[in-house]
Amino acid sequence: MATRPRKTAAAAAPATPDAPAPSTLQTPHNIWLAGLGALAGAQASAQTEGNKAFEGLVQQGLDWQARTQALAKEKWAEAAERMGAMTAQATGGVGSWDKLGGIFEDRVARALASMGMPSASEVAQLKARVEALEAALAALQGTASAPRATARRQSAAKP
Fold it and tell me: What per-residue confidence (pLDDT) applies to 22?
């Protein structure tokens, strides 16, 4: 079997002077290092650009927040105005809140009456009757009731 002759450095040289000579630029390790260098450069520029972009986004967020708050205040004022107009229309204008309060009080009074609770006027009538009965009793008993009451208290206090 015949062996092939080895190529020497002179034989590996390019045949034409325009062809590039093999150099260390094309080794895989150098390609890897060039990629790492490009990545490091991109990361550094991304950090500076990223900070600027972040600050820009924060400013846009502040602008949007101010706009939405102003819009919300405007809508709130419109809703309050509409509610005022609706209550004025439904109740006839002046004293609308008083009428609304009266409706609420009537409903509470009906609920208390359904539970058997006396109304405020009934309690006032009972109070007036009790005071009248106390006055009539005091007139019947005269001034003699005062010494008896103190004697009863003293005897009840002694064990």
Answer: 53
- Residue 32 and residue 84 share a domain: yes
Kindly state whether residues 128 and 118 are assigned to the same domain.
yes
Structural domain range at position 52: 27-93
Query: What pLDDT does residue 11 have?
Result: 47
Q: Which residues of 79-111 are buried (b: 16+ CB within 10 A; e: fewer)?
A: eeeeeeeeeeeebeeeebeeeeeeeeeeeeeee
The pTM (predicted TM-score) of the whole model is 0.31
Query: Based on the structure, what is the number of domains in the chain?
Result: 2
Cβ pair 87, 100 in contact under 8 A: yes
Under 8 Å between Cβ of 104 and 117: no
| Count of residues in the chain | 159
Q: In this structure, what token pair is assigned to residue 110?
A: 């009906």
